[in-house]
Design goal:
5 copies of one chain form a homopentamer.
Chain A (H helix, E strand, L loop, with lengths): L2 H8 L19 E7 L4 E6 L2 H6 L6 E7 L4 H10 L4 H8 L6 E4 L4 E11 L4 E11 L3 E6 L7 H8 L4 H4 L2 H36 L3 H32 L8 H66 L8 H4 L3 H22 L4
Helix pairs in contact in A: 7-8, 7-9, 8-9, 9-11
Chain lengths: 353, 353, 353, 353, 353
């Protein structure tokens, strides 16, 4: 028994390899075994890895889905049964992996991020999905509890569906396709959020609008970080570097690759749009400042000279001839009106009014 | 009959694959069959796909043009008759594709965007054009109703025209060339719009000018997104990686490739120009703010000290010797003029006047 | 006669292929035929293409220079005589081409831009030069009237000059070299202009300085656009991919390639410098704004509290004890001086004075 | 004896090759020899190089760890004994090297930086680690005194550990892995610091926040400079270009390569975040300025016209009818309230209140 | 005699090929011939090229150093004797070359820039160094008078030095190494300058600090321009594409290549640091502006309403009840204090005080 020793050694390994959060067994790890071929379909929810392994031999395609990585031991046992290298098990359990594809010799190992958009906080959550694709089996490991792959089981249940006629590689494609479709959902909601923010920018932009734009920009950084390596992963699968992927499935993978290009296009467009919005926010700030300063300047420039004039005739000198004039007061009003009109003309020429 | 099942399965597929908008049959999908060789030319507007297919055999070149993708079923039938993969049909019907070229084995599949500039809203609209290029046929699918390919039919009608002497590949070239020429039209109008905005920037820039620049910049993001993949598509066609494209046609495609380089050059130049305009707008804002502040500062700095002086002699102290002076008032005017002239000199030295 | 039909078809082609501007025959297209070998030199200015073609056979090297593209028909005839493809003729006549090199099989086709700097408007003008390089001939087409290639004819006249001993490829090199040398002239003048603007920036920058910097920056965008593809064109010529270029000439072309690298280096340096100048202009604006605001703040902060004090004792209350004091007025002056000095100390501590 | 002469020649070499700082022998260079195979483990702290060399022959793997590069002579002797080129010795002693991998023929030479985060100054310190990896030995040179490799010795002491079963290449991997793990620690602390600064940015950002962001940004420049070349180094080791690295170890190195990709991802994300924070700081400054100016403008615009009114009736003209009015004072209060309310309405319409 | 004719033709060549500045023979070009092998060393300062050439045959390695390119004729004669192409001679004499390596067949031609930092003007000066490396000789051409290569002669004089045992290629390496070491000196001084400017930025940044940062940034543009092509030059030498470079010397050249990578790293780091400093300068400007505006706003907001109050009771209405009150004056002081304290509370809540 070599592998347990290796697993023990995992403990020796660096701190960036934690047991997944919430590993406290508050909800048991669910193991779901799906077995099917063109004629039959069987779906079993099992308790232990041993039970699960006893089911794996008969049919053409077996799919073992591990929902929520709470039970590191179960993952280790499953890995052992399928001959996975300890480093691969470590990658499955470490949920901060970068999306990647590894050829393990007899099987393929895919790490990919499932994304979802939280409409409350406007944050993009991600969950790590790991797939091991063998000739007749697919192992899938979900980071967080939640029946994300239900739509695929629905498709599998339908007799005559293409997915029933094809092999484990097409099943893996369908799982990845489901995840990538989620990216489009997220992008759509980001697009809506951008439109909302644009409206806010035009009507009444506050500093909260600014924070929201910055926040969304940062979310796009994370999105991009999850989506960028997808191109390599799916590209490599589609190029058929591994004989695990049949010719028939490759055309679907290439179509999926087109989707990832579209995703990256959208991400870049959104980033450009958000940058443009930030620029616009800043120039609207400057614009408003100009507006404010104009008001201040007009008022001050109108009244400060006039106040000087009134101050002048408020002086208490004994000998000020104007004060004694019959029409001195009217004369001052004349000056005031003159200054006023001259200033107005000046502002109009400057196009400030 | 395998393919209908596959078509049914399209329904299983992700939501980003909608039926094209306006698929409500309010205007029937028009099918136009054009058949020609060097001697003959025939143009038939048919109702049903079956009728259309019955016409396809005889002449050297057949061009089936589907105007407006309203009838997904008709597209499916046509695809079936020409042996197109369900994924290709899906790509034709999904009008958010990225421009691309796919070698389908016996034929080539090209997705390309037709662009047009709306002079009212200053927006660039795009329409997806899909072409299937076979040895003796071209299928063209237009997203939106509108006789975009009429000029090509005009050229085909003229006996002795080069396009009549050459094959389906040259017809496809002519269609793509027509679309790419539309890019130049759009660029020309964008160029005019930029000139208008530049004039506005110099004469009287408002915050609307800013919005217009931002809006145009965003339009260029979308334009670039449509134009960028063209280089690969046309480059690959021109390199003659497929034997579908004859040697004779390749020289025209390489010429077209030069056009796409010119387009990308123009797009990049326009982007640089728009960025420069934004910078200029911002610095003109700062300039104007300086201007406003200068006026305020000059007025305030001139009159605030003088108002202090008048305030001084407006005090009601019993014992203020100056008030009793014979020439006290003249003395104050002297001070006022002195301060005034000193300030003017100061501003002149600072080059504010 | 196939080609005339093709030429006719040029009319079918897209609008971005206009006849060159000023094609109104106000000055006739000049055709200059130069024939030389090591011993002989002959220079003939002819009227018609026919006359020109009758001269083309005898000597080792023939150079036909078409000055100003006003006579599309003459170009077409010449092209026909030398077996040029209609697309090449179109490229010659369309003066918005991107610089490029094309191998036509029996000859090479080079499009290149001649640049010149207008000292009045500070704009860079460009003229399209097209060269067709055959084994024993060079055809050159100048867009605009003007004897740009006179220096080459001068060198050719000198007996024993290297250019006389070498073939058509060296003549083509000499023509391109002459054009590229013009780039250095332009760069030199741009460099001088940058120095002028830098001086203006330091001494008295106005908004005109800003416009001039932006204008020059835009000129550099156009310059770069013309110069960038040169590297590929001259690089490909120098690598000797065509057997038209002899080993002996290649070393000169590689030297020319070094020149284009120097040009691109200079362009990038100028762009960086202009960007730095814009940054400096903007920060000098902010600096000046700070300066202005400081003056305003100092004056306002000094006098507004003092004006309050004078206002206080300008009130007309019946019972204000200070007004009756013997030294009330002196007391107020004391307050005024105190406030004044305190403010001055404060400003000095803030380093505003 | 050739090498001493070469070493002497090191003195001829440029000034950027200093003896490591603190070479003043205040603490002796510690030499630690570790010898192990699957069964045995031995750890000896020796004084002289000679003693050290006498121990090197017997067991399958020997690890000589030189802690602190204070004794250049000892390094030279060790290098001589292992046949290292003088330039390699120079690289070991020059602690400003860039991370790199060199194939020395019979051994591999790796330079790598160990990073640590100083919680006090928020600076990232780096220490140069040089490794020489031979078929059965590893030489490690630490720049600074400190038992950085203790965890590896702990793992080696445990019987049955994988590290005991594998060769010198795995030992080298373990050492590099330990160093790279330190990068994650640093990144974690940088991440915490970024969060602190973000909080500061939202609650009360001062110019110190700005300095801290700039400081952290600069630290990331240095981090990136240390981490960037790691990808090549570890990538080259993992590709197994040298037969020194066994197939079994390569899978671990490829895993380590994934870690470096994650590190670069994080660095880029942090840089983007810091840039975003700077932008936000600047726009919050502008926002606050607008806020300040608004207050000033509201107050000035409210009271300056009113002060003019009071100044008007503070004039001492003999004939001012209003002054004699019975309700003149009330009338003025009416004007004041009117102006006041009108201004408030104006500000409310402008959304300034 | 073919070459003189060619040299004559240099006159025909473009204006960017000037004779080096200061070609006025005010100090004669110094020719220094160094001849050495492992046993012998000879150093001769000669007057004429003829004398120089007579010395070139005997020993294994001859180094001819031309100090200051004042005598174009001497360079031409030397070039002729060593069979250099006229274009190479032109490159040597044109001191605006880009660093480059050319394989001349029997020899290598290297152009490289020697950099030095002027502590007075803080400018980076550069001098062009051209080397011709033959199997047994090195020709070096210095642009400016000054004994830059003296340290190499010192090393050559020492018997037993490695440089004496190795060939012309190692001598060339030593010369280039000397020049590249100068880059580190310059970088060190730039680093010090950056530290000085950073201190100035924190303590008292003036607009001169801004100018100095911009100036240094521009110097780095020029530095980068000189250093960037070095990587190709030294990389190509180190890859041993020419058999002129022996295996033994290549390891030194690869070490030198590492140095150039370090240089580029430093340049990029410095550029990033300078950009960060500019950002910081600008945000400190905004900060200071906020500071200034705050002072103005506080003072104006405190006193303008109070001045209004005093103005109110300075009016001369006949019927103003408050004026007659016994404690009217105290009442006003009450209002004043109230307003004052309310404003202070407001400012404190806004964190302006």
């Amino acid at each position: 028994m070599v592998i347990p020793a290796d697993m023990a050694e995992l403990a020796e390994r660096p701190p960036e390899t934690p047991a997944p959060e919430g590993a406290c067994h508050d909800a048991p790890t669910r193991l779901m075994v799906v077995r099917y071929d063109e004629k039959h379909y069987e779906e079993l929810s099992v308790e232990s890895v041993e039970q699960c392994l006893s089911l794996r031999d008969a049919p053409p395609v077996v799919w073992i889905d591990v929902d929520a990585l709470r039970d590191a031991e179960a993952v280790a046992k499953l890995g052992e049964a399928y001959g996975l290298h300890p480093l691969v098990l470590e990658d499955i359990l470490t949920t901060t992996q970068r999306p990647k594809l590894e050829d393990l010799g007899g099987s393929l190992f895919v790490v990919i991020k499932m994304l979802s958009y939280d409409r409350e906080t406007h944050e993009i959550h991600h969950e790590q999905m790991s797939l091991v694709i063998g000739p007749t089996y697919v192992l899938s490991f979900q980071e967080v509890k939640g029946d994300a792959f239900a739509p695929i089981r629905e498709r599998l249940k339908r007799a005559g569906a293409r997915i029933r006629r094809m092999g484990a590689d097409y099943l893996a494609y369908a799982l990845i396709d489901l995840i990538v479709d989620g990216y489009f959902d997220v992008l759509e909601q980001v697009g809506e959020r951008i439109e909302d923010l644009e409206d806010a920018l035009v009507t009444n932009s506050t500093s909260e609008t600014l924070h929201a734009i910055h926040h969304l920009k940062r979310q796009m950084i994370f999105f991009r970080r999850a989506a960028w390596p997808l191109r390599e992963v799916i590209g490599a699968l589609g190029r058929g570097e591994s004989r695990m992927i049949h010719q028939e499935t490759r055309v679907y993978l290439r179509d999926l690759l087109d989707h990832t290009f579209q995703i990256m296009d959208s991400v870049d467009t959104f980033r450009d749009m958000l940058s443009g919005m930030l620029d616009m926010y800043l120039s609207s700030l400057s614009n408003r400042m100009n507006e404010i300063m104009k008001v201040l300047t007009i008022i001050a420039t109108l009244f400060i000279p006039l106040t000087f004039v009134t101050g002048l005739y408020g002086m208490n000198f004994r000998y000020m001839p104007e004060l004694e004039w019959r029409y001195g007061y009217l004369f001052v009003w004349g000056i005031i009106l003159l200054v006023f009109l001259a200033m107005l003309a000046y502002f109009r020429r400057k196009r400030w009014l």
